[in-house]
Design a protein that fits this description.
The protein is mostly helical. The protein has one domain. The protein is built from four helices and no strands. It is rod-shaped and about 95 Å long.
Length: 144
């Protein structure tokens, strides 16, 4: 018999730890299952939030492009009409005035875009909050 054989022989006769029985093996097994389940739940929560965020971003992008194209054509037609009406009175200055008007509109739109781009809520805030609660709960249990 080698030195490892008596240990193996001693463990062969022992029943495996059944659920509900006390013991280190059972406690570690239960802890491992709980830990893996918690990690899996948190990963699924993060993936769900990411999918919903991507869906909203895709919708906003498509609607923004559609709205921008339609608005561009409408404004181009309005600009042509204004230049035609003002040409006899102002000539090329009508183009300059309308050009400056569109520059002001573009600057205002840029400022509004920058304001809208600032997020009031951090990405994945629900996931971060859940992970913080889990961390706090584990900290309280360990440091009783």
């Amino acid at each position: 018999m080698t030195p490892a054989q008596p240990v193996q022989a001693a463990h062969e006769g022992e029943p495996s730890a059944a659920p509900g029985q006390p013991g280190l093996r059972n406690a570690l097994s239960h802890f491992g299952e709980t830990f893996v389940s918690a990690v899996e739940t948190r990963v699924q929560l993060g993936m769900l939030e990411m999918e919903s965020e991507l869906g909203r971003a895709e919708k906003r992008l498509i609607l923004g492009i559609t709205m921008g194209a339609a608005l561009s054509f409408a404004l181009l037609a309005a600009q042509a009409l204004l230049v035609a009406v003002l040409w006899e009175r102002m000539g090329y200055r009508s183009l300059a005035v309308l050009g400056l008007l569109w520059l002001v509109v573009a600057l205002v739109a840029w400022m509004l875009f920058n304001k809208a781009s600032l997020r009031t809520e951090a990405a994945f805030s629900a996931t971060k909050a859940t992970l913080q609660r889990d961390r706090d709960m584990l900290f309280r249990r360990v440091h009783r």
